Amino acid sequence: MTELDLFVLVLLVSIIGWISFIDIRFLRIPNALNLALFLLGISYMLVSEAGNTGAQIMFAALIFAVLFSIRHFHFKITGRIGLGLGDVKMGGAAAVWIHPALFPTLLLVASAAALVLAFGAKLISQEPDEPAMQIPFGPFIGIALILVWLLQISNFTDTGIFG
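The structure assignment produced for this chain is given below.
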Protein backbone atom coordinates (compact mmCIF):
# COMPACT_ATOMS: atom_id res chain seq x y z
CA MET A 1 0.00 0.00 0.00
CA THR A 2 1.42 3.35 -1.05
CA GLU A 3 1.28 6.56 0.96
CA LEU A 4 -1.40 7.79 -1.44
CA ASP A 5 -3.45 4.64 -0.83
CA LEU A 6 -3.13 5.09 2.93
CA PHE A 7 -4.16 8.76 2.74
CA VAL A 8 -7.16 7.91 0.55
CA LEU A 9 -8.10 5.06 2.90
CA VAL A 10 -8.22 7.48 5.86
CA LEU A 11 -10.48 9.83 3.87
CA LEU A 12 -12.64 6.92 2.68
CA VAL A 13 -13.08 5.56 6.21
CA SER A 14 -13.97 9.07 7.42
CA ILE A 15 -16.66 9.52 4.77
CA ILE A 16 -18.04 6.01 5.38
CA GLY A 17 -18.03 6.72 9.13
CA TRP A 18 -20.15 9.85 8.68
CA ILE A 19 -22.46 8.09 6.26
CA SER A 20 -22.90 5.21 8.69
CA PHE A 21 -23.52 7.45 11.70
CA ILE A 22 -26.16 9.50 9.90
CA ASP A 23 -27.82 6.51 8.21
CA ILE A 24 -28.07 4.57 11.47
CA ARG A 25 -29.42 7.57 13.35
CA PHE A 26 -31.76 9.11 10.75
CA LEU A 27 -32.20 6.38 8.06
CA ARG A 28 -30.92 8.70 5.35
CA ILE A 29 -27.65 9.41 3.56
CA PRO A 30 -26.96 13.06 2.77
CA ASN A 31 -26.32 13.87 -0.89
CA ALA A 32 -23.19 15.80 0.10
CA LEU A 33 -21.60 12.66 1.58
CA ASN A 34 -22.49 10.55 -1.46
CA LEU A 35 -21.00 13.27 -3.64
CA ALA A 36 -17.86 13.33 -1.48
CA LEU A 37 -17.57 9.54 -1.84
CA PHE A 38 -17.96 9.81 -5.60
CA LEU A 39 -15.49 12.70 -6.00
CA LEU A 40 -12.87 11.07 -3.78
CA GLY A 41 -13.07 7.91 -5.90
CA ILE A 42 -12.72 9.88 -9.14
CA SER A 43 -9.85 11.94 -7.71
CA TYR A 44 -8.04 8.79 -6.59
CA MET A 45 -8.39 7.25 -10.02
CA LEU A 46 -7.08 10.39 -11.73
CA VAL A 47 -4.08 10.79 -9.42
CA SER A 48 -3.15 7.12 -9.17
CA GLU A 49 -4.00 6.24 -12.77
CA ALA A 50 -5.67 3.15 -11.32
CA GLY A 51 -8.05 2.71 -14.21
CA ASN A 52 -10.08 4.24 -16.98
CA THR A 53 -11.91 7.09 -15.26
CA GLY A 54 -14.43 7.59 -18.06
CA ALA A 55 -15.36 3.91 -18.06
CA GLN A 56 -15.72 3.92 -14.27
CA ILE A 57 -18.06 6.92 -14.42
CA MET A 58 -20.19 5.15 -17.03
CA PHE A 59 -20.17 2.01 -14.88
CA ALA A 60 -21.26 4.07 -11.85
CA ALA A 61 -24.14 5.52 -13.89
CA LEU A 62 -25.16 2.02 -14.94
CA ILE A 63 -25.10 0.76 -11.35
CA PHE A 64 -27.15 3.77 -10.24
CA ALA A 65 -29.70 3.05 -12.99
CA VAL A 66 -29.91 -0.65 -12.09
CA LEU A 67 -30.32 0.02 -8.37
CA PHE A 68 -32.88 2.77 -9.06
CA SER A 69 -34.83 0.33 -11.25
CA ILE A 70 -34.77 -2.31 -8.52
CA ARG A 71 -36.03 0.29 -6.04
CA HIS A 72 -38.80 1.36 -8.44
CA PHE A 73 -39.99 -2.14 -9.32
CA HIS A 74 -39.90 -3.30 -5.70
CA PHE A 75 -42.13 -0.34 -4.79
CA LYS A 76 -44.52 -1.09 -7.68
CA ILE A 77 -44.81 -4.74 -6.63
CA THR A 78 -44.95 -4.36 -2.84
CA GLY A 79 -46.03 -0.77 -2.23
CA ARG A 80 -43.06 -0.36 0.12
CA ILE A 81 -39.68 1.29 -0.32
CA GLY A 82 -37.13 -1.48 0.07
CA LEU A 83 -34.01 0.40 -0.95
CA GLY A 84 -33.58 4.01 0.01
CA LEU A 85 -32.63 6.61 -2.57
CA GLY A 86 -29.50 7.42 -0.55
CA ASP A 87 -28.49 3.76 -0.78
CA VAL A 88 -29.04 3.84 -4.54
CA LYS A 89 -26.82 6.93 -4.85
CA MET A 90 -24.22 5.40 -2.57
CA GLY A 91 -24.17 2.25 -4.71
CA GLY A 92 -23.47 4.41 -7.75
CA ALA A 93 -20.73 6.29 -5.90
CA ALA A 94 -19.19 3.04 -4.69
CA ALA A 95 -19.11 1.74 -8.27
CA VAL A 96 -16.52 4.39 -9.13
CA TRP A 97 -14.09 2.79 -6.68
CA ILE A 98 -14.45 -0.85 -7.70
CA HIS A 99 -13.52 -2.62 -10.90
CA PRO A 100 -16.75 -3.89 -12.53
CA ALA A 101 -15.64 -7.50 -12.05
CA LEU A 102 -15.52 -6.93 -8.27
CA PHE A 103 -18.81 -5.07 -7.87
CA PRO A 104 -20.86 -8.27 -7.37
CA THR A 105 -18.50 -9.09 -4.49
CA LEU A 106 -19.26 -5.71 -2.93
CA LEU A 107 -23.00 -6.35 -3.20
CA LEU A 108 -22.63 -9.88 -1.82
CA VAL A 109 -20.63 -8.74 1.23
CA ALA A 110 -23.00 -5.83 1.95
CA SER A 111 -26.17 -7.90 1.49
CA ALA A 112 -24.90 -10.89 3.47
CA ALA A 113 -23.87 -8.69 6.39
CA ALA A 114 -27.25 -6.92 6.39
CA LEU A 115 -29.09 -10.26 6.26
CA VAL A 116 -27.09 -11.59 9.21
CA LEU A 117 -28.09 -8.50 11.20
CA ALA A 118 -31.74 -8.83 10.17
CA PHE A 119 -31.92 -12.52 11.06
CA GLY A 120 -30.13 -11.90 14.35
CA ALA A 121 -32.51 -9.09 15.24
CA LYS A 122 -35.49 -11.30 14.39
CA LEU A 123 -34.15 -14.15 16.54
CA ILE A 124 -33.75 -11.98 19.62
CA SER A 125 -37.03 -10.14 19.12
CA GLN A 126 -39.61 -10.75 21.85
CA GLU A 127 -42.56 -9.98 19.58
CA PRO A 128 -43.32 -12.78 17.09
CA ASP A 129 -45.54 -10.56 14.94
CA GLU A 130 -43.28 -7.51 15.03
CA PRO A 131 -43.37 -5.63 11.71
CA ALA A 132 -40.29 -5.69 9.53
CA MET A 133 -37.63 -3.34 10.87
CA GLN A 134 -35.89 -0.77 8.73
CA ILE A 135 -32.21 -1.53 8.35
CA PRO A 136 -29.86 1.23 7.23
CA PHE A 137 -27.99 -0.29 4.29
CA GLY A 138 -25.38 2.49 3.93
CA PRO A 139 -23.05 1.14 6.64
CA PHE A 140 -23.04 -2.26 4.96
CA ILE A 141 -22.28 -0.78 1.54
CA GLY A 142 -19.52 1.25 3.18
CA ILE A 143 -17.88 -1.66 4.98
CA ALA A 144 -18.07 -3.78 1.84
CA LEU A 145 -16.60 -0.93 -0.23
CA ILE A 146 -13.63 -0.56 2.10
CA LEU A 147 -12.96 -4.31 2.16
CA VAL A 148 -13.31 -4.83 -1.59
CA TRP A 149 -11.27 -1.70 -2.42
CA LEU A 150 -8.47 -2.93 -0.14
CA LEU A 151 -8.63 -6.32 -1.84
CA GLN A 152 -8.54 -4.62 -5.21
CA ILE A 153 -5.52 -2.40 -4.53
CA SER A 154 -3.58 -5.22 -2.89
CA ASN A 155 -4.28 -8.02 -5.37
CA PHE A 156 -5.38 -6.71 -8.71
CA THR A 157 -3.14 -3.79 -9.53
CA ASP A 158 -0.21 -6.06 -10.40
CA THR A 159 -2.23 -8.58 -12.41
CA GLY A 160 -3.11 -6.31 -15.30
CA ILE A 161 -6.84 -6.28 -14.56
CA PHE A 162 -6.84 -2.50 -15.09
CA GLY A 163 -4.64 -2.47 -18.13
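Interim note for the steering committee: The mean pLDDT is 91. The chain has one domain: 3-155.
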